[in-house]
Amino acid sequence: MLLEQITSAGIVGCGGAGFPTAVKYNTKTEYFIINAAECEPLLKTDHYVMNHFAKECVQAIAAVGKLLEAKQIVIATKGHYTKEINALEQAIQEQKVPVSVFKMNNFYPAGDEQIMVFEVTGRTVPPGGIPIEVGCVISNIATMLNIYHAQQGENVTHKLLTITGAVKEPKILEVPIGTSFDDCLALAGGATIDDFMFINGGPMMGKTGTQDEFPQQVVTKTTSGIIIMEKRDFIYELLEKEIPQMINKARSSCIQCRLCTELCPRYQIGHPIHPHRVMRHLTITEIPDDIDDDPIWREALLCCECGICETIACPMGLLPRQVNKYVKQRLAEKGIRYQKNDQPLTPTLMREYQQVPPVKILLKDGLKQYADLKVEDLLKHESTTVNIPLKMHIGAPCEPVIQVGDHVKAGDLIGRKPEKALGADVHASIDGMVTAVSASITIERRDNQ
Question: Cβ distance 424 to 443 under 8 Å?
């Protein structure tokens, strides 16, 4: 019953790439872990969910834990989130459910699912593997709120997100899926600077874009935040670098100091990934022809793209993450995957002392000025026009089940995942008339409906 409700509601993971939740839950597990670490600096959405919807989330968590037959149900969050922890523990006590709270240190990327598995269980997910291989299933805390709504018969139509940075009124927004970023910025009082760039997501793993690209962006099921910032900042330099420029600089400037490797979170839990070796390999490679099935190139496939190597580690201003991403793309084009083996996995002895505090990220990125902004107020908004993508998740795009001229209500099915394909259904987020159907579906609210 619960799995059917999750499927019908079109729920995908709120904390990452949008893996269809019902597919993840079609298993049994020892640990069910809730990611409530709010991994990225500046984002406050998960804080809001824990503070204001703890009872709803705990109810959903307990139900999913029962579905998965989990022996341990754990909410993993940062130990200094005292207000949030109090809310969660009170809800757990009131509902008398077998859920516990695990308090993590304040480091980045505490919310990476494989890092969280290691923190909670001491187990290392195999390189190229997923948490269920070590008896764990992980979901984001905001996903649990969507599951609670699914239990009430409500489909995913709206999204909670943080808008902050160089805006007049930083806040939490609740808007229909498909709402334009322009509308979100207006709801935050507009930008405080004339010429800006933006991050869709967090400072480290979000997607950067220019002011010209901003109007084309819309809120999806996985949008966690919008950060407005000055163009001169460090992140903009990352955006501007082109692949040949990155490679040439790496060839001429890499000093093989190993810091990119030593601070790599996946290396620290025992994965055989060595970014400095990938950088060194560039010096003897014709790009892109020689990127092939090579043991060192395959190490790049283990990169989680957290960005520590280039934002914090490298003293030469090189971009190991971007190089890894490029190598991964070339290998994917050739159908080359990481080959799992039974190699022993030994965490590094210095891991505990090499964790990166989020404040260092903000200092390096030029975002420290926004660290103390108060982002607690919620603004609910109902858009007059939405542009809903048919692909907001890992897997195949949905197929439209409506056409131009149809009238729909919020919650109506408008896109169905192809049969037997990985995906999640898409629903109308406002009442209105369908005015366009392509890779996305446009709905306009009409007063005379």
Answer: no
